[in-house]
Amino acid sequence: MASDTEQIRGLGHSVRRVEDDRFIRGKGTYVDDVKLPGMLHMAILRSPYAHAKINGIDASRAQALDGVVAVVTGELMAQHNLAWMPTPSYDTQAVLATDKVRFQGQEVAAVIAEDPYVAKDALELIDVDYEPLEPIVTPQRALEPDAPVIRTDKEGKTDNHIYDWETGDREATDRAFAEADKVVSLDTFYPRCHPSPLETCGCVADVNPATGQATIWMTSQAPHAIRTVFALVAGLPEEKIRIISPDIGGGFGNKVPVYPGYVVATAASLLLGRPVKWIEERTENLISTGFARDFHMHGELALKADGTMTGLRVSLLADEGAFHADAQPSKFKVGLFGIVSGSYDLPAAHVAATGAYTNKAPGGVAYRCSFRVTEASYLIERLVQNAAYELGIDPAELRKKNFVPKDRFPYESATGFVYDSGDYQAAMDLALEKIGYAELRKEQEEARAQGKLYGIGLASFTEVVGAGPHHQYDILGLAMNDGAELRIHPTGKAILKISVQTQGQGHETTFAQIVAEEIGIQPEDIKVMHGDTDNTPYGLGTYASRSTPVSGAATAMVTRRVREKAMKIAAHLLEVSEEDVEFHAGTFSVRGAPDRTKTIQDVALAAYTNFPDGMEPGLEAVYYYDPPNLTFPFGTYAVAVEVDPDTGVWEVRRMVAVDDCGVRINPMIVEGQIHGGLTEGYGIAAMELITFDEDGNCIGANFTDYLLPTAVETPRFELGETVTPSPHHPIGAKGVGESATVGSPAAYVNAVIDALRPLGVTNIDMPLTSAKVWQAIQDAKALA
Amino acid sequence: MEITVTVNGVERTADVEPRLLLVHLIREVFGLTGTHIGCDTSGCGACTVLLDGTPVKSCTMFGVQADGRAITTVEGLMQDGELHPVQAAFKEHHGLQCGYCTPGMMLVGAALIQDNPMPSDDEVRVAISGNICRCTGYMNIVKAIQAAAQASSGATVDA
Amino acid sequence: MLPSRFEYHRAETLDEALSLLAEHGDDAKVLAGGQSLIPMMKLRFAYPGHLVDVNRIPGLDGIEETDDTLTIGALVRHRALASSELLRARYPTVAAAAPQIADPLVRNLGTIGGSIAHADPAGDLASVMLALGASVVLRSSGGERIVPISEFLVDTFTTSIEPDEMLTQIRVPAAPPRSGGTYLKLERKVGDWATVGVAVSLTLSNGSIGRAGIALTGVDLKNLQATEAEASLAGAEPTDDAFEQAGRLAAAAANPVSDVRGPAEYKRHVIEVFVRRGLAQARDMAGAA
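YS: structure for the whole thing
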């Protein structure tokens, strides 16, 4: 019970995480920790070819191996109508290949064995007769008229084109460009990278032969949505499917899609009557699961001579891989890329996007991208930086000149987003002050005189999260709403059940803090449950930074609903009318007689023992939240680098990140999210890359080739904050999980380009390896 | 092959194939699932355990190599029901998010502060450079290990 | 992937190990640190029928210096090389390289003998030993032979070791007074193989260069001794120009491939830069010695 002096540790407190207690003891339950009696182990055979016909599969030697229980092929899955499955983008994806393989690493067969080592042994004993076909490794090649058709499974498909999509006002934009004093353009490729959470994907599928009940432990950021999809795909009744997301070792969007391994393991369990565990290896994770980015972008910015931006025009080509499997709101073919006007008051903008199939893994919407906001933010911040150079205006000044002013919110952008709130100037000013921008520019001049290459890069991002209002936002038709269920127990403790799914964001602590703030029960007295579809309310899950904006809102609202009832009970206990009851931090008091009080704990007990006549007993509620709008976190990042002209090696000297995510529930956790995102941004800017050779071989399919920064390479970060609450969110919070991954790559790249500017370098595409930096210097020298 | 391994101070015996990796011996045979697997090319350190007090990648050793030797896993960090200073520091300083790299990080940290009671920021970063984290950006992991060092020795630490 | 099956033998003595190698020949591999072998076995690039675990053999993990020779036991772990006071003081090329090998976890188990016998052209220690003019001691049940490392390294992952032999020791000529050296390594991140590695060793004698050792990592089919560059420095004045010239010769002798780490031209350029920088550092050290 909170004493007069003890504060309720609600919003704004850096409450230490309750989930840590099990993790620091090594007592987390990740999916590979799940062991069931009779459990079998599954291993997947994958295609070595990027594009090939399958003329036959002979699994007899594998089936004969001691310890092998079954070998599943596409043919067997096809008999149960499970060789193909729908994707969130209304395409289909092969579960196990039947006619062709369409990317290196594609699933071809699965071995189910008593022992995981035997399962791997058996993979080598499956003979597949492949007939290689010409692989398509660029979307440009894919769209050439003579390119081989990848999706020969789609009736009537004669090309590799997937979609054309546009947003904004083409005419108004064309006019702006026609009248512009200056047009700055940039061609940039945001390469394919991968969320690569430290825990790979996997499941334990347990279909009970007697009851038909399917319990599937699964690395899933969206267990409820997956359950519905499974019901539709597998024809299993939805109430007989229980998806349990246990502890998840990182998601970053990698654990949203339904992967073939989940489907095959479930089918195998159904057919064999025993639990089947499938845990993918790192190579499988990198080569076949949801990748990120792979956008070829052409951007143009129209400006007046004084630097006022008047128009933005983008055309882009999306490399979608062999199946169109983007997990994003269905009405948006390139997610929320339309946010590309960013923090700037741009009167006209237009985006034209084309998507193409290639012989690569499917995906694209992942890795903390906020639904393609990473790509958009990168483009605009690179364009603005280059525009500053071309106009001879300082990059900070050019940005400030064009920021949406803080009194213009809610602000409707040229592509139809209504930004809820923002104060871009304040974040920028704080970042510049913290990094000592003016001093750094002076230092840069002196350094240049000595032949040293110092650079300063900025990125002032506005991103968009919290999908979303149901008219505009759905995935496979499912509205993107989330629920929260709260029950207060007789002894005054509580249980909160939520539909989102943490993968490290600390929901068990932060969501308890939301309840604590609203009802005055301490967070450690509130148990937070998530991840079990039988025991939590329905919702679309955690990705695109939507947990706080949507589920956090639901949590605040459900607590208010409970508080409303609590007020009535308090009035009953205090023997006054409800209008005379005041509530503050867990205490109900009588207006005008402040010493007459009841605590929430008193009220809770009364809800079960001494409630008013005619009132339904108990103290609980459920609330489903349909957000009225998205939320718009923002910030300014500033990076100072030094580049070694002899080797191209660049080092971050300072990295300042000022973020505004509205009200911060738990500042310690917010900062942790930002540190992580700044590191992912650094990895993407400096070293992370999935690429393909001309034969379609994937380079970047293990940690030897897909490079993740260690503590030695990773810069130190200095954080700052401004707080501009969201006016439409019940607690004013906006969400922050992806901001740093969205905003930071451009800051790092802008810093290196800034360092190389005197040498004539205007662009280097990520990752900025030392070799590429050196090459860019040589190329610029040759042109000089 | 029959082997005897001291795990967290307790002698355990097992009869295993030579090719069984140490990490699988720990997780599947001894049932200690706090040691994790994050990759297949010995590149992430999630599987780190202490071998006679020295941090090693348990995915890059065979279980039979640990015969007659002592292994410490994350489950062995607590002593007499008390959290090891490293464990307490990781919670206090938000040194973990998803928790998957955490056992390895804490074991490396524990070994480091035994040898080096006042590790600098750089020294900690080098010590954990064989352990990948995707969530934290390392800032709070470094802070936690330095704080653990301070708690263990009482000395102040230069950042 | 997981390794295929094998038979495991743990040798308690060197004789035991050698007789096992004699018995199983080509089908046996020595298991020391395992930090190169086991990853290859997990990928099934290597699948020996027999592993001979030599980790418990006594007497193979010393670092000792006599008047004319530094001997390093094959089982000396990289971590021990990195923390050796003797090496730091007298053999700075080794001391500079050891902490840059792989990552700290690998360094706790990886051994110098294993590293050199593995003969990965991207391995750091073989370049160090080439620059220092070292030899390896190869023992078999039949006896012992000592082979200069330049002859021992034959090709990618290939040495002149016989199937019944084990590398037991590395011998380095004792460092003369006024020696210096270092190891410069460009890697994309900790734990990656070298994009380029350069080992240099320099001795000064009456103001000019007595002996220069220069060897390169990751830029040829095997670790490469830059003999023309070395020859250009023998007896010469230790000037920046001489070092630049040596760098050019070393780069010209290398055969880097264009790959994910960069174009061949870039690697050649970095060789030049690192040879120049490394020799300058070595000169400063030798001058101060």
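YS: worth flagging: The first strand of chain B starts at residue 2 and ends at 7.
IM: good catch. Also Residues 139-153 of chain B form the longest helix (15 residues).
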